[in-house]
């Protein structure tokens, strides 16, 4: 088993007034050659956007872009004609493929929106762009991991153009679960959304991240009430 640990306070940070963003991996003006990616997981940004503010229309191509709101409401518009609001309990994916433009704004005028912006390198390049959004409120389970993303359009959650699986787990103190790797050779990047956990004897707190590979399973134990995002991805691009 191999591991890499990224404590919350070691992440890159960009504060623009309207936006406060923490970067687990190199992004924009934050460049760390030792933190370029974890396998095909390229970007993990922890963003807070002030009321009524947001990202103006900008382009993407050949990237799987996943947004997971943690608080508040995020308004999305894109060149495919999609207009949507995603909020806590939703997961959104944008397969940029041959190219799209989109914008993201805080829908609310009285409170900030907090969300994760995640980029995954695609399995195939130059596919037709696609948008998908689902509510995960009805599939959420207590004290075990449940799937919110996969490579299969008929599976639970959203689907992307990559052999990746995302799971979320909400645990009460003392509870635990074991996650089994779906595809041989994949690794898992665990990101602690809330609380404290222990993964393979390593103690992790809010917004800490840990990559694990060359293993068939990982065990997550909540040492305080906690919420955890697991991102299983191929380790080779």
From TrEMBL:
Source organism superkingdom: Bacteria
PANTHER family according to UniProt: QUERCETIN 2,3-DIOXYGENASE (PTHR43212)
Keyword Cytoplasm appears in the UniProt entry: no
Annotated CDD domains: cupin_Yhhw_N
Gene3D superfamilies in the record: Jelly Rolls
UniProt KW Lipid metabolism keyword: no
Family: Belongs to the pirin family.
Species this protein is from: Arenibacter nanhaiticus
Keywords in alphabetical order: Iron, Metal-binding
The protein, known as: Pirin family protein
Needed cofactors: Fe cation
UniProt-recorded Gene Ontology molecular function terms: metal ion binding
Domain Quercetin 2,3-dioxygenase C-terminal cupin: 148-233
Cofactor details (free text): Binds 1 Fe cation per subunit.
Residue ranges of domain Pirin N-terminal in the record: 11-120
Positions contributing to Fe cation binding: 58, 60, 102, 104
